[in-house]
Amino acid sequence: MTTRVAVLGAQGRMGSTSVTALEAAEGLEVVAQVDVGDPIERVTEQEADVALVFTTPDVALEQVLWCVEQGVHVVVGTSGFDGDRLRAVREAVEQRTDVSVLVVPNFSIGAVLLMRFAATAAPFFESVEIIEMHHPAKVDAPSGTAVRTAELVAAARAEAGSDPVPDATTTDPEGARGAKVDGITVHAVRSRGFVASQEVLLGGEGEILSLRHDSSTRESFMPGVVTAVRHVADRPGVTVGLDAVLGLDA
Amino acid sequence: MTTRVAVLGAQGRMGSTSVTALEAAEGLEVVAQVDVGDPIERVTEQEADVALVFTTPDVALEQVLWCVEQGVHVVVGTSGFDGDRLRAVREAVEQRTDVSVLVVPNFSIGAVLLMRFAATAAPFFESVEIIEMHHPAKVDAPSGTAVRTAELVAAARAEAGSDPVPDATTTDPEGARGAKVDGITVHAVRSRGFVASQEVLLGGEGEILSLRHDSSTRESFMPGVVTAVRHVADRPGVTVGLDAVLGLDA
Amino acid sequence: MTTRVAVLGAQGRMGSTSVTALEAAEGLEVVAQVDVGDPIERVTEQEADVALVFTTPDVALEQVLWCVEQGVHVVVGTSGFDGDRLRAVREAVEQRTDVSVLVVPNFSIGAVLLMRFAATAAPFFESVEIIEMHHPAKVDAPSGTAVRTAELVAAARAEAGSDPVPDATTTDPEGARGAKVDGITVHAVRSRGFVASQEVLLGGEGEILSLRHDSSTRESFMPGVVTAVRHVADRPGVTVGLDAVLGLDA
Amino acid sequence: MTTRVAVLGAQGRMGSTSVTALEAAEGLEVVAQVDVGDPIERVTEQEADVALVFTTPDVALEQVLWCVEQGVHVVVGTSGFDGDRLRAVREAVEQRTDVSVLVVPNFSIGAVLLMRFAATAAPFFESVEIIEMHHPAKVDAPSGTAVRTAELVAAARAEAGSDPVPDATTTDPEGARGAKVDGITVHAVRSRGFVASQEVLLGGEGEILSLRHDSSTRESFMPGVVTAVRHVADRPGVTVGLDAVLGLDA
């Protein structure tokens, strides 16, 4: 059985790379490409099973709600799709319990695994610090992924009753790019030559465990996109995060 | 409640470091230290709950069997405690179902986590290679931990139906230190300055996930020793591997 | 004063990327682009000061000799331009002492610096090993750059009277991808996600110095191309290697 | 010819490790060990050629001046030996032009090479950032070595006329441990498991050159101590820094 996929925002950078990846994936077929000015009805005309949405947040909300109403499963790749938008989708899905919506803040399987591993390992080590490295055109520091990782690490330590990370620093008059997030120090490197990298350092007496992910091209998101589209229908209701479809919670 | 611990091989390097660590750990008390020439009866005279064994393989087997017979739980830290020795212990424990034996080939929690993470991540990446780095006095290559990691990675990929790791190499006339284990290439670095390090590189299109553990002192094994002693009694029968007592299989 | 540049092999990958980079560089102007089927006379008609050659080895030799005869300086970026070809150019330049030819086996300034630093540091450390990491479509192992680095390291140690690198390995039945080059072990990693990376590990008692270069795009060669074109005229005769024009030998 | 060495502060950590290392080194002999309460005259009674000083700054100054007056060459390993102390020694040496004094702020050859390499490479890359990693008991951030490295990098870039390091950050409300030193961002990691590590990241379009030094034991300083003692007599007058005796300025 082939899964029929519609891509919304098909001419954007993530959309067009996804079209190529989905067409190359076994068992998937791109039956509709919708971009600005195209009628969304193509999705149903072409009998798509799943809509993959990469449009801007406001357009995306409308499109997701329309797809849900039509009984089409949705993978949302639009950034910043949270808060009110997420609530609106949850309400809509309560009316259509046969429809699944998967909201994916980060399609990088490597980055998602790194976060999980960091949280799992965190209670076993005295110290944890995070270094994220991005291109120098990035305007915000630290990165959203690093903040999320720090939050997960801090939550895992809190649950395990870990002590605070030790730090005897008394003289640090200036500070550098980064932040302390829930007690976890995050360093933000900005340098030409990086696209998006993150390293979590976990330290104990006489040992360091370091978990690092380096991403250099948009192609690195494609296994995540394909996995999301393949498995969105398996999870009824609204799900947030790629983890849910990686089969890690056996 | 305090757990009373006897250390067998208490004057060896791991034994003596463990005595210090156990005495510093909350809820544990070292009540007997046994070394060459000392009567093993000290274990029961001092009413030890758990015996921690670091003696040589042949002595160790006798000691473990004696402890089991006496109803004392055992953590086995002796290297190379497998095959016939393990079978003999399993038989003995069948007669004493109230006793737990935990055999620990590697007390480094960091190394154990690294192996688990590598196996979990392996099916999500096209390529996996392992680099292990040890001091130049090591006589065998690759290291036992690296071989074990490669086996776990290969097994995880086989179960997931992963393709073989891609490799177009046609000219490689000489070869370097290391091996190909179940299809996974393991590189063995020998350099002054390393004690025991291992890095697993997982590569996909446009991304690398690297998991690395560096161990520089015997103290890095102590959290594993303490955890094993604390939790040995929770698992009836004979268990192999620290994983079982890390609480990772919720 | 603007330097007028002709690019030969202008439609190839390195050629076309170089045209873009040279046009963006201050003081340089691309006045001629020559590719298959185009007359080489464009170089002199457009009064080029420097010809940058990226054509195939056989075509390249003819073109370089013609440029030398015409009094045009040449930067040779064609791979494998050595042996007989280099000798032929040296002879030609003996007749035209006003012309400079710079043959560049590697335009990456980072890679060239890494090799120099490795050779400088090598005599100060007991151990040196090299890890090179490339994409899995590469057919030869180890990489030419790694072999060259190992040779430079070995030569520096020989000159300094260093002892052989210590290695107690007695059991290494299989071997992995790589080679031992002049006594220096080179490990060759092949994994999706790498383009061209190299790490030199220098180890002493209680310390590791690691020098690593990661290259992910052809753009990383452009500073080397621009520097070569800018400075080729400064060095009369035939010169091999980018080092010569980096101003490092004050 | 054997060089006769007196160690002042012989029972301190650096002093005692140095005594062992000097006795193992070819051509060197420890003829006097002086510590608190011992008469400094042992240095001359035992006809030492070189005094190696690891005492506290105030004691050290007196001892160095006494040695200079007696015609004994001095290697100063005492931390913080600069400013007025250095001036006093320079004045004393002007009266005894046959005596050499070598003040060594950092005996790690690896760390000294890293600083040199970073300064050499810095003008060839758009971006430079530094990450230093130390144990969590360190009270100051960033480390002195990292600050010195940043200063050398900044000076090399200024001399070469490099542009400022690019950085588009507009949102970085909190900051992390570290500092911006002469325009170079230094990140300070504090984690159990590190002793003293430093990494310099140099980034250009599509490439990263990373230079890293990890030091885990005091033994890593011994090659620097031995080299300083061996070569102090070669450089008349007062010299600061190990570089001068590494033979790098051919």
Automatic annotation (TrEMBL), chains A, B, C, D:
InterPro entries: DapB_C (IPR022663), DapB_N (IPR000846), DapB_N_CS (IPR022664), DHDPR_bac (IPR023940), NAD(P)-bd_dom_sf (IPR036291). GO terms for biological process: diaminopimelate biosynthetic process; lysine biosynthetic process via diaminopimelate. It is an enzyme of class 1 (oxidoreductase). SUPFAM superfamilies: Glyceraldehyde-3-phosphate dehydrogenase-like, C-terminal domain, NAD(P)-binding Rossmann-fold domains. It holds the Pfam family DapB_N. Residues 4-107 form the Dihydrodipicolinate reductase N-terminal domain. One of its GO terms (molecular function) is NAD binding. NAD(+) binds at residues 9-14, 41, 77-79, 104-107. Pathway: Amino-acid biosynthesis; L-lysine biosynthesis via DAP pathway; (S)-tetrahydrodipicolinate from L-aspartate: step 4/4. Its main location: cytoplasm. NADP(+) binds at residue 42. Signal peptide: none annotated. Residues 110-246 form the Dihydrodipicolinate reductase C-terminal domain. (S)-2,3,4,5-tetrahydrodipicolinate binds at residues 135, 144-145. It is found in: Cytoplasm. The active site is at 134 (proton donor/acceptor), 138 (proton donor). Its EC number is 1.17.1.8. GO terms for cellular component: cytosol. Keywords: Amino-acid biosynthesis, Cytoplasm, Diaminopimelate biosynthesis, Lysine biosynthesis, NAD, NADP, Oxidoreductase. NCBIfam families: dapB. This is 4-hydroxy-tetrahydrodipicolinate reductase. It comes from Aeromicrobium erythreum. The lineage of its organism: Bacteria, Bacillati, Actinomycetota, Actinomycetes, Propionibacteriales. The gene is dapB.
